[in-house]
Predict the structure.
Amino acid sequence: MNKRIIIAIDGYSACGKSTLAQQLAKYLHYIYIDSGAIYRAVTLYFLQNAVSYHTIGAVSDALQHISVEFRANENTGNADTWLNGKNVEKRIREIDIAEKVSEIAAIPEVRVFVEKCQRNMSRHKGIVMDGRDIGTVVFPQAELKLFMTADMDTRVQRRYTEMKLKKENVSLEEVRRNIEERDYLDTHRTMSPLRQAADAIVIDNTHLTKEEQLDYALDLAKKVIASPLIRQMPDDTHSKKD
Ligand code: CDP
């Protein structure tokens, strides 16, 4: 039986986590879970419904009306994010969501809600999940933890190019400001801040092509999967319960 593991990929904004996570999931036939997309979908709901998110009661009420899922998109070969039955994949990547998401992701009730979604989506092994707290909080038991980084100019340029391809009306300076601000908020929040797990392997992909980063990470994954220290139970559900 082919052993299946959990791969946790954490790191700063726009340093290629989701690209690598998608590549690994496709190659290994694993499920990819983009945890940032869930935070983005919650942010979209809060903005659309003018939720006064500084008020705890309002946040808890609003969260009861949110359902986020990932559904396969046959055209792209990737999974799209759906919020309450509507495809919001394109919308959640826009700059107004990026400008608010880290503030909303710092709210403890929101983090508890998203963690629950993450666990519901990953009841069995064979998961690649990317985010900020996956190796430290969500799956501290992940068999492979990667921490991605790249230099700031490279990250800004990559995200700017990505947004321009999607015809977003945004300047290079706005993208830089947003990435710097999110890095700050994500590393300074009280609950599950962005940290490198002690047992994570760092990948600086500033000078790596997509193929090179995949080769490197795949090699690590194959070694972990082949390790006799990794045992597989017949029905390998996660030990940590909701
Ligand atoms: O793709 P990008 O680097 O722009 O970010 P993302 O993965 O879409 O995540 C958007 C935001 O959600 C991050 O800036 C964090 O504030 C938040 N997030 C988080 O707090 N914890 C996670 N596990 C994933 C995302």
The CA atoms of residues 95 and 170 lie 8 Å apart. Residues 6-239 form a domain with the Rossmann fold fold (CATH 3.40.50.300). The pocket of cytidine-5'-diphosphate is lined by residues 13-14, 18, 35-36, 39-40, 101-102, 105, 131-134, 182, 186 (CB under 6 Å).
